[in-house]
Design brief:
By secondary structure, the protein is an alpha/beta fold. It has one domain: TIM Barrel (Alpha-Beta Barrel). It is 41% helix and 12% strand. The longest helix has 17 residues. The protein is globular, with a radius of gyration of 19 Å. The structure holds 3-hydroxy-3-methylglutaryl-coenzyme A.
Length: 384
């Protein structure tokens, strides 16, 4: 299949690393947000997806107060990006039916945080986006958009931004929207009730509408390394083709989802090479590994080696996808932070507090804590 067309946002090859930082900040506001704390290339951004991906599949209704408490606790760990909910059809994913109340709460009472936080919400179609936008419109000046992002977030000539100029405790949060395509037709039908092409048409409306409001857009592609219905053989060139489509629609970031955890090291490397060959920059990619087969950290290492610096994770290893039978949670935030620290990488996150949160939320919703690091640190503390 011939799909790999050049992207308009390629990096000129004569640019050197310090130019690249300035370049990526100029085209990607989130990149400059990262530089508020870390201008080094050993910084790894962890996006916490526990409140959405982690909870969406829970059968027992989780009280709104618990969800808000989870987000508020996470906001105090150094995280800059938290996926907070999902504007999807409640009859499909009932657990996310209170996402409107979550967004409204976050705007009216932004949790105390160490950094300005960007809260993201899924929207599968214009209806989902409209629901989110109507809340934003009813609460003007309670959130920042990336297009109006002010100078404190912009790095200076050295690539380091002026941290003292902004007080994160008083800065309104950012809001982002996420769309979620699938790499196989079967998964698209199960998850979105339509073909890949039809889903892309709907996502275009979401992306264009969100960008018109100045919102940043993440674009997931699910089942990139294995589909519960079509097996391991997912074509990486098809993934790259969908990624190009989404970027050309205006998505700011492509989030590659190993929904089933079927990914292996060689196939992760093959996928990333296909993305590179399609002209998609590492800076535009996030990896989203589920740990069903215990390969999430192996695949994370492969991605790091390839140059990826942004990963999704969920505290306590919460999660699973309603349309991926048997899939377990995301790689846990505690495990990935410990792993990064062991490699000398910097996440800016407070591992001890994350362990407490993983312990608390798993008890709260009656689940086993599936973070190995969380359990080890809590056990060690108890012994001491
Ligand atoms: C896409 C649809 C809506 C199509 O669903 P549909 O049934 O084909 O759509 P429809 O347009 O015929 O609408 C059906 C009903 O839903 C309503 N509706 C329609 N849209 C909305 C909306 N936005 N918000 C609220 N309500 C909505 C609509 O009004 C109607 O209501 P009714 O007339 O029956 O009362 C549906 O399939 C859906 O919501 N799917 C959600 C799937 C989902 O959330 N999956 C989990 C997230 S993806 C994931 O977890 C993977 C990821 C991202 O984490 C990465 C990875 O691990 O790979």
């Amino acid at each position: 299949m011939q799909c790999l067309r050049p992207l308009t946002r390629r990096i000129p090859i004569h640019l050197r690393p310090h130019h690249l930082r300035a370049f990526s900040s100029a085209v990607d506001p989130a990149a400059s947000k990262d530089h508020q704390h870390h201008a080094t290339n050993n910084f790894v951004k962890i996006v916490e997806v526990g409140p959405r991906d982690g909870l969406q599949n829970e059968k027992r209704t989780i009280p709104l107060t618990t969800k808000i408490e989870l987000i508020s606790k996470l906001a105090r760990t150094g995280l800059t990006d938290i996926e907070a909910g999902s504007f999807v059809a409640p009859k499909w994913v009932p657990q996310m039916a209170d996402s409107n109340e979550i967004l409204e709460y976050l705007l009216k009472y932004p949790p105390t945080s160490l950094n300005p936080i960007s809260y993201s919400f899924l929207a599968p179609n214009a209806r989902g986006l409209d629901n989110a936008l109507s809340i934003l419109r009813s609460n003007p000046k309670t959130y920042q958009t990336f297009s109006e992002q002010s100078s404190p977030y912009e790095p200076d000539e050295s690539g380091i931004s002026n941290e003292s100029a902004s007080d994160p405790n008083t800065a309104p949060p950012f809001v982002e929207m996420s769309v979620f395509a699938a790499a196989t037709e079967s998964f698209s039908q199960k998850n979105l009730n339509c073909s890949i092409d039809a889903s892309l048409e709907k996502f275009k409306e979401v992306i264009v509408g969100a960008k018109a409001m100045g919102l940043r857009v993440r674009a997931y592609i699910s089942v990139v390394l294995g589909c519960p219905f079509e097996g391991y053989d997912v074509d990486p060139r098809k993934v790259a083709e969908i990624a190009c489509d989404l970027m050309e629609m205006g998505a700011d970031e492509i989030d590659l989802g190993d929904t089933t955890g079927m990914g292996t090291a060689p196939r992760t490397a093959e996928l990333l090479h296909a993305m590179q060959a399609a002209g998609i920059r590492n800076e535009d990619l996030t990896m989203h590994f589920h740990d069903t087969y215990g390969q999430a950290l192996v695949n994370t290492a492969i991605s790091l080696e390839h140059g990826i610096r942004r990963f999704d994770a969920s505290v306590g290893g919460l999660g699973g996808c309603p349309y991926s039978p048997g899939a377990t949670g995301n790689v846990s935030t505690e495990d990935i932070v410990y792993f990064m620290e062991s490699l000398g990488m910097d996440t800016g996150l407070d591992l001890d507090t994350l362990c407490d949160i993983g312990d608390w939320i798993t008890k709260e919703i009656g689940k086993t804590n599936s973070s190995s690091v969380g359990k080890a640190i809590l056990g060690k503390r108890q012994k001491a």
